[in-house]
Structure formats: structure tokens, C-alpha cells
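Feature request, filed as a ticket because there's no other form

It would be nice if the structure record came with a short human-readable summary line next to the C-alpha cells. Right now we just get the raw output. Example of a typical job, pasted below so the devs can see what we mean:
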Amino acid sequence: MKKSLFLFIIFLLFFGCSDVKPPKENKDSPFRTTVPSQIYFKNMRSLHYTETDTKQEGVKRFEPKSIEKNAIRPKVFPIIYQNWLKDEAYIVFEKLDAPKESLSVELNIGASEESSKFQLGNFKSHFDLAQKIYQNPSNFQLYIYENEEKRKILKESKDALIVLSDYFKLLE
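Raw output as currently delivered:
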């Protein structure tokens, strides 16, 4: 009796444990975050942000509190989205009065006439724009095209640079 009960338990343990492998992680993703950088952001930097859960599961939106304090709100501002289920973080330049709208922007850096145009529709294009601004933080101007008209929306914003700095630290 004891022997058959022992064999039955071994049988259950052997066949009861599945060999389901966890999904493959995309370690080459430029949006990848690490646990230490997430802890640092959550404990130290998130105090400067208003955190909201989005309708998507596992995605948190961090909007800088400095936007709320300013009497003159910028038209477009970088917002951090953290997908903690995938261990990824995204930077999105959102139009504050219409956040879901796709943007067409132009970036001028320095006194040169060199400009870069971005069609902001996916996370990669937002990331490329953020990286370009972060690498050249002084003397940048960002323009948006609305109704065929070019309008300046962000110029050497210290608050925007702080958000970009926090974002790239989150990716370390």
C-alpha cells in the first residue's frame, strides 16, 4: 500500500510539472530596462511625475508634475510610458490637448540650418527624436506642423531635458 502510494505521488510529480518555457525576451530592444534602473526611477525620480495606469495592462504613464505647475503649458511634451510586464520603457512626445494624434515635427539644433524631420507614429520614431535632442541638449528648437503651418513648440526646455535624462537612465 505504501509502495503504491509512493509511486503514485512520484507519478504525479513527474507528469504534473509542465515543461512550459517562458516567452523569449527581446534583449536587443532599445527600450529594454533593468531592475536596478526601474527601482531607482520608482523610488527616486517618480516623485517628480504624476503616475497613471493606462487602459493597457502593465503600462504606466509618467507625466512630469512641472507641466501642471506651468501657467503656459507647452503644446508637445515628452511623456514616459513604462511597460513593466515586458521590462520596457517608451518615450512619447504627446500633444497635450490631443495625446493620441500622430505628429509631424521638425527639429533644429544649434545655429546651423540643419534640421531633421520626424513623423512620430511609433515608439522607434519617438525614441530617435528623444535621442537626437538628448545628445545635443543646448540650443534646440522643435516645431510642429499644424494645418500646413510650422509652429515652434519646444525650445531648450529644462523640464523636457530632465524627462529625457530620466528616460535614458531608466534604459541603463
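Something like this underneath would help us a lot:
Strands lie at 49-53, 59-64, 76-83, 88-95, 103-109, 115-120, 140-146, 149-155.
Residues 27 and 33 are 10 Å apart (CA to CA).
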